Amino acid sequence: MSSTAIAFYSPVATITKDEEKARKAKMSIIIERYKDKVSALPTNDDHHLCRYEGFWYCHGFWYHSKADFSVEAIMASQEDFQALPTDIFLASYPKTGTTWLKALAFAILNRTKFKTNSGSCPTHPLLTISPHDCVPFLESESFLNNPSYANGLMATHIPYTSLPKSIISSDCRIVYICRNPKDVLISFWHFLNKVRDDISTPTKLDDAFELFSKGMNAGGSFWDHMTGYYMASLERPNKVLFLKYEDLKKDTENEVKKLAKFIGNPFTEEEEYDGSVQKIIGLCGFENLSKVNKDTSKVLSDDIYFRKGIVGDSVNYLTTEMIQILDKITKEKCDGLDLSFEA
Ligand code: A3P
Predict the structure, then answer these.
(1) 200 backbone dihedrals φ, ψ, rounded to 5°
(2) Model pLDDT, residue 107
(3) Which one-letter DSSP state was computed for residue 268?
(4) Considering only CA atoms, which of 95, 97, 89, 91 is closest in space to residue 246?
(5) This protein's superkingdom (predicted)?
(6) Ligand 1 centroid to 247 CA: how many Å?
């Protein structure tokens, strides 16, 4: 195995409710820094969104005040972040399999340090803490205030065209995970209703659908986000790998091997023979991770990242008309691209 394995493990990102006050104070400094720039942006006050570089984002604190993903955090990372050529970024639109990809990449890169056999290494980080604590988001307050802890493996929801310039110019590698938009919407809708402050008035699916199909949720248009990275993967195939959640579900072993190779840590023949690939798949599988991630003491409890973890669940929620509309948008946005979805 290559010696470039990233030796990272730090529980620093574990934000408990007690630490939330300090986090908000630090985020306020960032928000203050970009106050004027943000106030000049087009806004949609009904949804507390502003438009920046072609995508909609929350500004100030996200409406439920729990997440870091705001336009100010993106501006701060654009201004401050300096990528190294050895860095690896796991990019995604929310709810497309970020947690799974984080777990897989972390387990692959650290497989020498933390053996995956549960018998020989019961303390593998992924057996005790969330993948989100193992791989920080570049645009999160915890990262912006402590960039050293990522140690080369980071995640981001920032669209390709808005990434900090050094990520592109440093030539580092980016892995993007994508998922069929109907399942993304349903996953997003459930997620939002779990994290919002006022759970007594959940967002209706009709409203979530309306906003998602217009690209008006935090993170902007799913389709523009996806096609941005897809085009980049065509232009820079050695630097940008485009994965699909559905492929990862269907052909996990091959996709995991592809991922390992791309991030510079291919499995050796011996590892393939001794079941290392399967052990990583088992460690990072939905069944295992959803059992481990039960810490509800955090501001965003670990278990909210796990719901069903299946392909095609959206048919259980969306009307025929909603499906037709989403399929039509996908068809139009993917026109001329070799990009389609199974479900
Ligand atoms: P569902 O809501 O459809 O179940 P993200 O990690 O980008 O927030 O995406 C969350 C979605 O990925 C959720 O989808 C969640 O259940 C699913 N997920 C999380 N961990 C997974 C894993 N290890 N394997 C497969 N799916 C997983």
Answers:
(1) -80, -15
(2) 96
(3) P
(4) 97
(5) Eukaryota
(6) 14
Place of tokens 């008035």: 201
Cα 65 from Cα 325, distance rounded (Å):
32
Distance 216 CA to ligand 1 centre (A): 22
Q: Is 190 among the residues known to form the active site?
A: no
| Dist CA 220 CA 50 (whole Å) | 10
Which pTM value belongs to this model? 0.91
Is the Cβ–Cβ distance between 208 and 187 less than 8 Å? no
Which of 177, 288, 305 for mutating ligand 1's site (highest number of atoms within 8 Å of CB)? 305
Catalytic residue among 124, 157, 190, 225: 157
Closest ligand 1 atom number to CA of residue 190: 2
Site to probe by mutation for ligand 1, drawn from 66, 95, 102, 106 as the one with most ligand atoms within 8 Å of Cβ, is 95
Which CATH fold topology does 82-333 show? Rossmann fold (3.40.50)
The angle that helices 252-262 and 98-109 make with each other, rounded to 10 degrees, is 60
Q: Whose CA is nearest to atom 14 of ligand 1?
A: 309
For ligand 1, the distance from its centroid to the CA atom of residue 42, given in whole angstroms, is 32
Characterise 62 by phi-psi region: left (phi > 0), alpha (psi -120 to 50), beta (else): beta
**The predicted structure's pLDDT at residue 10:** 34
Cβ contacts of 312 within 8 Å, gap of 6 or more: 180, 183, 342, 343
- Enter the tokens of residue 294: 């039960």
Place of tokens 């007690």: 18
**Burial track 76-104 (b if 16+ CB lie within 10 A, e otherwise):** bbbeebebeeebbbbbbbbbbbbbbbbbb
What pLDDT was estimated at residue 5? 29
| CB-neighbour burial class of residue 127 (10 A; exposed 0-12, middle 13-18, buried 19+) | middle
